[in-house]
């Protein structure tokens, strides 16, 4: 009779069960990483993507390449601002550099764990920034607007132009090339940025200075 009762228990398909097991395994691995001594709070993935906020982290190689480019462009003792580009910020912090300083402007308040370098930022209010954030006080601004729309790019451009002394490194869709030139005077680079998860839209980098990305 016990066997008869067991037949009434709903069974997951083997495919669903395998997917569920994979999900839990990944979760355990992530938690294991976070509790191990070697865990770095600045490593990419330490704060997970939130697709509802249109977040897509760069691959490790892309984040490293963009971080290195920013350090070179900023120069010794330079200041770098990352606008909606947290994975580049994380890579810069991993370098533990003493020759530059960096801050992150981000809508996602989870990044407030990074302390005073975190500045809450909503592109809908492009100049709603802390008073201590002086205009034209950053040697380079790296920005990755969260949405592929002219409205989002135009508003983010206001922030970028307020912050930068001149140099701009923009990461956005290939379809935004015309608008990027119009609002920021930037040109497309040969370097192709990659994400940790493949995106449907082709992504590109744009600059307004002689960069190492060509």
UniProtKB/TrEMBL annotation:
What's any one GO cellular component for it? cytoplasm
Q: Which domain of life is it from?
A: Eukaryota
Per the record, the GO terms for biological process are:
methylation
- Which ranges of the sequence are coiled-coil? none
Q: Where in the cell is it found?
A: Cytoplasm
Q: Which UniProt keywords apply?
A: Cytoplasm, Methyltransferase, Transferase
The record's listing under InterPro entries reads:
DNA_methylase_N6_adenine_CS, Efm5/EEF1AKMT1, Mlase_EEF1AKMT1/ZCCHC4, SAM-dependent_MTases_sf
Q: Which Pfam families match?
A: N6-adenineMlase (PF10237)
Q: Where's it mainly located?
A: cytoplasm
Q: Which GO terms describe its molecular function?
A: nucleic acid binding; protein-lysine N-methyltransferase activity
Q: Which reactions fall under this protein's catalytic activity?
A: L-lysyl-[protein] + 3 S-adenosyl-L-methionine = N(6),N(6),N(6)-trimethyl-L-lysyl-[protein] + 3 S-adenosyl-L-homocysteine + 3 H(+)
Q: Which PANTHER family match?
A: EEF1A LYSINE METHYLTRANSFERASE 1
Descriptive protein name: EFMT1 methyltransferase
Identify the taxonomic lineage of the organism of origin: Eukaryota, Metazoa, Chordata, Craniata, Vertebrata
């Amino acid at each position: 009779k016990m066997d008869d009762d067991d037949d009434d228990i709903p069974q997951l398909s083997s495919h669903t069960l395998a997917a569920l097991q994979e999900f839990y395994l990944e979760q355990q691995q992530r938690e294991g990483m976070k509790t191990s001594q070697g865990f770095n709070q600045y490593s990419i993935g330490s704060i997970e993507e939130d697709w509802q906020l249109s977040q897509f982290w760069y691959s490790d190689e892309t984040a490293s390449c963009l971080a290195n480019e920013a350090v070179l462009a900023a120069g010794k003792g330079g200041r770098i601002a990352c606008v909606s580009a947290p994975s580049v910020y994380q890579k810069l912090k991993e370098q533990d550099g003493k020759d530059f300083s960096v801050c992150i402007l981000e809508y996602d308040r989870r990044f407030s764990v990074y302390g005073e370098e975190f500045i809450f930022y909503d592109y809908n209010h492009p100049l709603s920034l802390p008073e201590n954030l002086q205009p034209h006080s950053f040697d380079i601004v790296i920005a990755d607007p969260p949405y592929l729309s002219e409205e989002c790019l135009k508003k983010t451009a206001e922030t970028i132009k307020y912050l930068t002394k001149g140099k701009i490194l923009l990461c956005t869709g290939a379809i935004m090339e015309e608008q990027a030139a119009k609002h920021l005077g930037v040109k497309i680079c040969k370097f192709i940025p990659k994400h940790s998860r493949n995106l449907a839209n082709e992504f590109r980098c744009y600059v307004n200075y002689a960069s190492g990305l060509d």
